[in-house]
Amino acid sequence: MRRYTTLSFSGMVGVLTGVLVLVTATATRSPAAVAAALLVGALVTVLSLSWEHGPPRSLAIVALVLAEAAWCVSLALGTSAWGALPVAVAVAVVATTPRSGAPRGSAPRGWPWLVGGVLAVAAPPVTAGALGELPSAAVAPVTTSAVVFVLAAWSAYRLNRYQFALYLEIDAARATEAELAVLRERYRFSTDLHDIQGQALHVGRLQLQLADKTLDRDVEAARGHLREAEQLIAQTIAETRRLAYGERTVTLAGEVANSAELIRAAGIELRVDGAVPGAQPLDDLLGLVVREATTNLLRHAQAEHVVIELAPGAVSVVNDGAAPNGRGLSGLARLGDRFAAAGGVLETSQHGGTFRTAARVAP
Fold first, then answer.
1. Taking CA 144 as the corner, what is the angle to CA 135 and CA 42, rounded to the nearest 5 degrees?
2. In this structure, is the dihedral angle defined by the CA atoms of residues 133, 136, 141 and 146, taken in order, positive or negative?
3. Which helix (H) or strand (E) element contains residue 341?
4. CA dihedral for 173, 175, 179, 181, sign (positive or negative)
């Protein structure tokens, strides 16, 4: 975009320079005047290449002085108001570029240079008219045309800078959106990883504890617990691999079945009310709610009874062994953020020793 803006603006200045040289050649038929117009036009075109950061001070001063001198000579030779064009472009370039050394995005010089440019192109024809070098009937149209050149060049150049600044803002916003997308994906990945590893590690620890307790009195039962722990670890490794490669899918039906198996294996009485609905909005998040609620009650609660309630677009998990301090809700808090972003509602409540986790899809 920067290259396009530079080429378009400097190309426009170059075309106008060609018009100036053509008009000078037609009006004066003087090789010296044509050469002077060509030199000044080329210098102003080079000056326009510095539209973004401002031209070097020495080059700007030389361009303005030569442009003003060429304008005065043009009037002396009786040419048209086209001779004021280099002054207009030079003033526009300097007036709309930031101050040298100013911070990025600071305001350009602006109005003082614009007023100075208007005076610079208006003074020569008015003076020439007063001295009788320019017909009085031509003073007003030449002066007006010269002033219009300055205003038009300043407006066009300022619009050029505004469009480029707008492009930079859009590009920055696009980059910010890309960064936010990466952060959101990292947040989702960390939440899913917490869901997988948190439940698996706790249940595996529970199976190992059961194996240790039954090892002396029932070797076969201990071996069974060890096999279950081994299977759980293998399953967790597979799920983590699928998560890393973006192949993992979560369903409410799968999480209800898995949670029911884990809860009953822990010796907790479970009742499931309702049937798992078919395909529905936020089915994966509803499944994650069941998983997180199961992980929390196995880790932090001393539950004896658990009820999983299922309804279209809603699920709740209730246990009767809630800890009084309500520990272990960070996972639900993160899941609640994801639910809210997807248009759902996740709520938790505690009454005495009963803790309820409920999620529903917003109507």
1. 95
2. positive
3. helix 330-341
4. positive
261-288 burial, b if ≥16 CB within 10 A, otherwise e? ebbeebebebebeeebbeeeebbbbbbb
| 354 confidence band (pLDDT: 50, 70, 90) | very high
Q: Which amino acid is at 114?
A: L
In order of their start, the domains of the chain are 2-177 (no CATH), 179-361 (3.30.565.10)
Q: In the 8-state DSSP scheme, what is residue 98?
A: B
Q: Quick check: helix, strand or coil at residue 51?
A: coil
Partnered with residue 270 across adjacent β-strands are 306
- What DSSP string describes 221-236? HHHHHHHHHHHHHHHH
> pLDDT (tens digit, 9 = 90+) per residue, 259-275?
888 888 778 899 999 98
Q: What is the pLDDT of residue 324?
A: 72
Which residues is 346 bridged to in the sheet?
Answer: 359
SS3 of 68-96: HHHHHHHHHCCCCHHHHHHHHHHHHHHHC
The pLDDT assigned to 68 comes to 72
The type of residue at 210 is: L
Pairing of strands 305-311, 269-273: parallel
Distance of CA 1 to the CA centre of its chain: 18
Q: pLDDT tens across 124-155, in order?
A: 778 777 777 667 777 788 778 777 877 777 77
**79: amino acid identity, one letter:** T
Backbone dihedral angles phi then psi of residue 214, each to the nearest 5 degrees: -100, 0
| Cβ-based neighbours of 85, under 8 Å, separated by 6 or more | 16, 17, 19, 20, 149, 153
Amino acid at 32: A
Question: Residue 21 and residue 27: Cα distance in Å, rounded?
Answer: 10
H or E segment and range at residue 212:
helix 136-214
Block residue for tokens 């499944």: 287
- Give the neighbor-by-neighbor strand order of the sheet with 344-351: 269-273, 305-311, 314-319, 354-361, 344-351
* Each residue's pLDDT tens digit, 321-343: 887 765 556 778 888 888 888 88
Q: How many CB atoms lie within 10 A of CB 25?
A: 16
Query: Cα(121)–Cα(80) distance, rounded to whole angstroms?
Result: 13
